[in-house]
Predict the 3D structure of the following.
Amino acid sequence: MEKVDERYQAALLEYVTAPKEVALLGGYDLGRGALGDGLGVLDMASIHSRAVAAALDRPLDHEERARLLNAQTAFFMEALSPFEMAHRAFRDANTMLRRLNDMLEGQAKRIAYALHSEAGQLLASVHFALAEAGRELPPEKTEQLGKVREVLTEIEERLRNLSHELRPPVLEDLGLSAALALLAQSVYSRFGLPVIVSVSLKGDLPAPIENTIYRVAQEALTNAARHAEADQAEIHLRQVQQKIICSVRDDGVGFDDSAAFKKNRPGLGLTEIKERVGALGGVVRLGPNKNCGTNLTIEIPLDM
Amino acid sequence: MRREVRVTIGSPADIVEARQHGRELAILAGFSICDSTLITTAISEMSRNILEYANNGEVVISLLKNGIKSGVKIVVSDQGPGIADIPQVMQDGYSSRKGMGIGLPGTKRLMDEFEIRSRIGSGTTVTMKKWNRWKR
């Protein structure tokens, strides 16, 4: 950073003394290098203001001072121009991420429909065929058939749960609150983990935010139930000004760091949560709960 | 002031010259200091590519006029090795450092129109335009 400071000061002075294009290119190259080295816009702003302060810290007459103040703007813009490019790239990437999100959402909807409706109908017709077959079988064989029916019923149940998790119809029919309550219920019946849900919102949320909150809650609760050995979990969803804040807390074994969290849940997990929330302009905080356990909080702005 | 400037690119000093002319024409076309800086940036990025991949080439900068609209057109060409897979080089992070969004894809975002033509063994031409919007 000190090296950049020195070079920036020298380049700015060169431009003030002789306002030529070559000095501006110097400023641009410095900015481009700084961007590559991972410096941010605020770093650039402070490097620039230190350089201006250093340049002013000399005996200057009125005209020199005016020239300096004029020249420093053009120089600063050059140094920031690579950051403008990076900023535009970031905006584009965000749009693409959101599009990808919509696409995945659509995919999940289709899979949920196929599981719920199509597979459901096929299974129903198998039930029907089994009942038909049962009528023609000797009584000692119908017992076997009964076992097949039991398995079939369980398969139906699991498909229903799966389709529910992918895209709960309640999210569309009744809204987020009811969907979260149902999610809590299903976590309790599948894993025996009781979940308290509290929701305080000022109205319906945009569908992408609802979907994301629902998915995040689903991920966090599954993690709590499967890996964190939690005895209890809570979902708090509220609106604070123009922000939606949702935290999922549990009293489980917690986590060592985010890497451990990721390792326990290969594939998606925290990475998916961060991507989904990030695509909506929000942030994810993963930290320890007050006493022990995990607190996963997401904040999503409403005005994106 | 000429309405079209041609600069041969063979050394970093030529980049300075191309930028200088680009900036002058941008201001002549009525662009703000901000937009003129971005146009100059586009010239830098593309000229830098010439030096890096083709050793030499040229930049032609001209004024555009379309009714009440004005703008600048920048044609950057070389007789270098050419680009085999254009969609690939237009991806962020392919050739620019660490996916910072600079280089070719970054330059495209600074301009209103951007077109690359390339043939393996005979070189690459990038044509880009930026229009001056009177009020943003």
The mean pLDDT of chain B is 90.
